[in-house]
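Quick one:
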Amino acid sequence: MTPDDRALVDRFLEMMAAEAGSSQHTLAAYRNDLERTAESVGSLGNASSDDLSRLGAQWRDLSAATVARRSAALRRFFGFLVDDGLRKDDPSASVPRPNVERPLPRILESVEVERMFEAAEDRAASGELAAVRNLALLELLYGSGLRATELVSLPRGAMRPGQPFLMVRGKGSKERLVPISSRAEAAVAKWLEIAPGGTQWLFPSGKKHLSRVRLFQIVRAMAADAGIAPDRVSPHVLRHAFATHLLSGGADLRVLQSLLGHADIATTQIYTHVDSARLVDLVNSRHPLATRDR
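Output:
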């Protein structure tokens, strides 16, 4: 692997650890997959669609699970390059995709999320700078389902008084409106009263904004404060919890797709499997034939 490719892979894995909460085992597997691919295509960062389309023949003797993992690693890697402006095109559509069942996302129960809020609110009551900031972060993560990158890169003026939504720039530089709860609005308002000035970021850190890695660390520390195993929680897990709990409350799948910023509703449909019990009950109670006598 070239030095340039290695630097890109390092940045990608840093994002995976911070935003998706990937374990060390997963990160090591992704690194190995990307290194093996680099051996096949030459320059990984400059690989073309044609380069990637030839991988199918090279992977034909691998198990479906291994091909699925390598395919996922490449799709996420090239998606990351595009999102971070390191590459203009995404050639990963040419990567082989085995027909395997997609794993269900990790989520937290609503009572566990409530415990995190109780612990965060207790700390924020002291008025301590980091504690007030952390509560605002938690409110936006769980209350709006923002991605880690979307959250940490919010500009200082992202929230305006009396405007119950944010304009967020998500994956592929696509903009979407994200509703903001009154709780999140209040938490951010308190944060802005004491937040450092002279910066363009809502959550500054030095001369830049809070990093994804630091956000990941903050969220895990907040989980530990609530008595929840830190390795179960990440910014992405809170995003999953936002989606699943909204669906449990009766949210429409298309609305959820819009809130999450998914380009394809098939991505959003994974949450129907997580909340299958509610959907079965919905069919049994609401379908026109449910109450029809035989």
